[in-house]
Amino acid sequence: MGDLVLETGRLVLRRTRDGDLDLHLRHLNTPEVMDHLGGVKEPHEIEAKFAKAEASFAREGFGFMMVVEKETGDLVGHCGLKRVDNPQAPNPGDMEIGWLIRQDRWRRGYAFEAALAIRDHAFRAFDPPVLVALTSAANVGSWRIMEKLAMERRVDLDFRDPAFSDRDNPTIQYAITRQGWQEAV
Ligand SMILES: CC(C)(COP(=O)(O)OP(=O)(O)OC[C@H]1O[C@@H](n2cnc3c(N)ncnc32)[C@H](O)[C@@H]1OP(=O)(O)O)[C@@H](O)C(=O)NCCC(=O)NCCS
Predict the structure, then answer these.
(1) Which of 17, 68, 79, 100 is the most buried (most CB within 10 A)?
(2) What spacing in Å lies between the alpha carbon of 102 and ligand 1's midpoint?
(3) Class of the 4-184 domain?
(4) pLDDT in tens, 118-132
C-alpha cells in the first residue's frame, strides 16, 4: 500500500484517499464520537481537516491518518500528528498527537495501539523536543490514553476554548519530552 505510514498488530495507518470523506462522515462524525469535540461538524469542515492533514504531510512529513482494521478492512479511526494551532493555546507549534475511534470499536485497545505507534514514530522520525496532547477532564478515555503513553499532566498549558461547552472546559494538556520518551521506550 503506497500510502501506508504505520502498521501495528491489528491496525494499518494510512494517508487519506478518495472515498474516505463519506466513511469518516458515517462512522466518525457522529454525535457520540464528537461529543467532547464540540459536536458533529459540517462535511466541509471534515474536508478541510483532510486537506490540512495532506498539506501537513507534504510540508512536514506527518499528519492525521485513517486507521484501518486489518481483520475487516474497515475504517475504524482517525489518528495522527499535527501542530498545535488552537488560537487560545499557549504553546502554538508544539507537535500534537490526537485520536478518534468509531464507537462500535471502542474499548478494544485500538486508540492506545494506534497512539503508541504514532508516539514512537513521532520521536524516531521527527525528534521533537516535546509531544503534547489536548483533551478535557471530562473525556476520561482520552486522558487515560495520555497517561498510558507516559505523558505527564501540564497544568501550565491549560486554556479556555469558547468552541467547547463548560463541561469540556478548560482544555487540558499532557506532554512527553524527548528525554521522557527515551526513558519510556
Ligand atoms: C477516547 C477514545 C479515542 C478511546 O478509544 P478506545 O479505542 O476505546 O480506547 P482504548 O480501548 O485504547 O483504551 C485506552 C484506555 O482508556 C480507557 N478508556 C477508554 N475509554 C474510556 C472511557 N470512556 N472511560 C474510562 N476509561 C476509558 C481504557 O479502559 C484503557 O485503559 P486501561 O488499559 O487502563 O483499561 C474513544 O472513546 C473516542 O474516539 N472518543 C471520541 C473522540 C474523542 O473524544 N477523542 C479524543 C479527543 S481529545
Answers:
(1) 79
(2) 11
(3) alpha beta
(4) 999 999 999 999 999
